[in-house]
Every structure is written in structure tokens, then in C-alpha cells.
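User: I'm putting together notes for a lab meeting next week and I want to include a structural view of one of the chains we've been expressing. I don't have a solved structure, so I'd like a prediction I can at least talk through. The sequence is below, exactly as it appears in our construct file.
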Amino acid sequence: MLIVIGQLFLSLSFLIILHEFGHFLPAKLFGTRVEKFYLFFDPWFSLFKVTKGGTEYGIGWLPLGGYVKIAGMVDESMDMEQMQQPEQPWEFRAKPTWQRLIIMCGGVIVNFILGFFIWGMLLFTYGTEYIPTQNVTTGIYVDSLGTELGLMNGDHILKVGDHDFVKFNEGVLRREISINNASSIVVKRNGQEVTLPVDKKFVNILAGNTYKNYNVFHADYPWMISGITKDSPADASGLKVDDEVIAINNAKMAHWTDVPKAVMANTSPTIAVRVKRADQELDISVPIGEEKLIGIGRYDATKFFKSTVEEYGLGEALKLGVVKGMDFLSTQIKAFAQMGKGNLNPNETMGGFASFAKLFPDTWNWQIFWRNTALISLILAFMNILPIPALDGGHVMFLLYEMVTGRKPSDTFLQYATVGGFVLVLCLLLYANGLDVLRWWRGE
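Assistant: Thanks for the context. Below is the predicted structure for the 444-residue chain, given as C-alpha cells.
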């Protein structure tokens, strides 16, 4: 849990600081006074602060974001006393509209560029590894939800909606149905092509929280031990890496998903594990406690089916990072559209900080850390540019109005709009995080 929280905390802190720097830098370049630069909010007191060059830099105690306080601007600080004073040349309100627009767009621009750049560098460093669908010769293995969709063990998926299923990836099916409204799945079954209609109810099911970490199908392969936890029951009993689990309590394990089910169903203090080691079959008795943890990891599908790694030069990777990032943003916009149409239930699809935390694994993995940081950076940019007062998008909306009409909204109007926007954002935060609390309460 500490590792998961640590990754989320580091990722958000990094993104917040760079976002606020996106406002800070153009403000300074245009000669605007920046009074505060804070990571997290500091109502009543701060954890740390230091003043340098006329700016107070600090860390607040309320981890709901961060801010820069720019002189002569109606913002969430609600410092209206300053706005009653005569306008000064170093204030935000004294600057030309185009300069104010750049200052307000700076944070979002940094988040967009950062998300695209990190994604591109990940592609440059690691490439893209995937298993071509044609390499999964055994077809798919489905559980209850996949069966409800009409899929069967041994099916070879050819197409989901209009999307050719070239890369073996369960996420493709989930995205095409829940986001792109795919109404059919084409599979090869017993040598024949079969078209399966998709009920509209699966749009919400596949996008919802209940089945968020549920795989509709897997590649069909056995549980081969990839690692053994030190001082675990498996370590004490003599199980070894590369042992293939073929039976538990004399019940055959045809697929790797059978193993955790059999372990959870065990009621005795020991569990009988039969493994294949080289050319031998061995029966090993493993002690197991109330937690029902043996302490064995498993290889993923790339151990059994040949994968392909696409490698990219730096320029190609950075360009593809933008393409991948834009595709991700397009998916988010489509998800909002699906909510607007009533196809997606916000209670199932929205979440707060706990939902973000679930993106990170319980072991530190820099590749996953930076991938999630790129995703969160793009999400923050998208959410911040929404035309809601108190967010960057709200300020941009009023500045564009001023540029078009030549009239500046009054400070009183901006004050009330900012308060209203702040209340709306706070309500959304409480709602999203409340959903996480409710899911935790229900044990989801």
C-alpha cells in the first residue's frame, strides 16, 4: 500500500509542480508579479515556505492540487482587497489580453506537452511489445462475462466492430464496445466465421468499476511458476521456478485461472500441489494459512506465445507519442459523450484519488510509473481546460470573451463566477472520491 501511495504521490507532485511552472514562467517573462508558488493548498498554515525574488515558495498540507498566486488576478485566493487598489503595471490585469491568455494556458500546455513527451520517450526506450493474434494458436479462454458475451473457449477473435483484432489485447475489445459502440464480434470457431451480436448493456458493464480489473478473456496457457516469495509456504515446501502446476488437490488445472480458484477453495491446513518438473510429475504438500497465499508468481502469455517488439527512433517515437496521446484524449472525450447519452453510468465509471492509485502496481516499476504519469498528465490537462470558472479553462473562456467583444468582465462578476466554479469543482471532487469510499465500503 505504501509503495502504491508513494508512486501516486510522486507522480501527482511532479505534475502539479510542472503545471504551476507553466503559469509561473510566462507570468515572469511578461513582468507579472507572482506572489506565491505552492505545491498543495495551505489554508491557515503551510508545512514549508521560503521567500525568494519576491515570491513565496511553499508546500501546503492539503493535497488537492497546487497554485500560483498572481498579483492583480481574481482567483481561488479571493483576495479582493488587492483588486480594489489602483492598477499597477506589474499586475495580471494590467497586461495585454494575449499575454494573460498565454499565462492562463501555460499550465495546460505543459501538461499536454509533458504527456506526449513521456509517452514518446517510453516508446523510444521500451518500444511496443505485443503478441500477434495469429500466434495465439490455442485461441481464447473465457470466464463468466466472456461467456455472457457469447464467446467460447478456443474461439479466435478476428474483429470487434470495425476494428481488426490484430494484436492480442483484451483492452481492445473493452474499448471498442464501451467507447466506440461496437455492436458485433467476429470469431473463428471450429473453422467457421461466426458473428456474435453485442448487447448494449455491455457498454456500461465493460466501462464500469465492477469489472474494471476483470479480463473478459485470456490466452489459454498453464500456470508455470515465474518466482517464489522468500520464506513463503512455497519456498518452504520445495516448489521451484519453472515448475508447471498441473493439479491441486487432485483436480486438474487446465488453465492458469484455475489455480487461484482452487487455492481459495481449499479448507485444510495444507494443499496438495502436483507439478511437472522437466520430465517428472511431483506431488508436493504445501502448508497454507488463513490468508491462503502460497507465494508463487506466474509467467505471462509471452512465455508461451511469441511476441513482437516494435522499436522506434527518437523522432518517430516522439511523433507516435503525440498520436497515442491524442488517441487517449479522444477516448476520454468519447467516454464523456457516452455518459451524456446515458450509455455510461458515472457512478460506475468515475473515481477519485483511490481510482488513480489503482493504476499503480504494488511493486515499484519505472516503466509503469512513467506510463501512468503520462496518462494522468493528459487527464489533468483535459480536465483543467474545461470551461469551468476557477479552472484554467474558465479563465481562458472569459479572456476569449474579452478578446472577441472588447469588454472585460467586471471583478465582481469574476469573483462570483470563481466562487461558483470552485464550489462545483469541490462537489465533483467530493462526488468522485465518495464513489471510491463507497466501493471500498462494499469491498469492491
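A couple of points you could mention at the meeting. DSSP finds 14 helices and 16 strands in the chain. The mean pLDDT is 88.

User: Perfect, that's what I needed.
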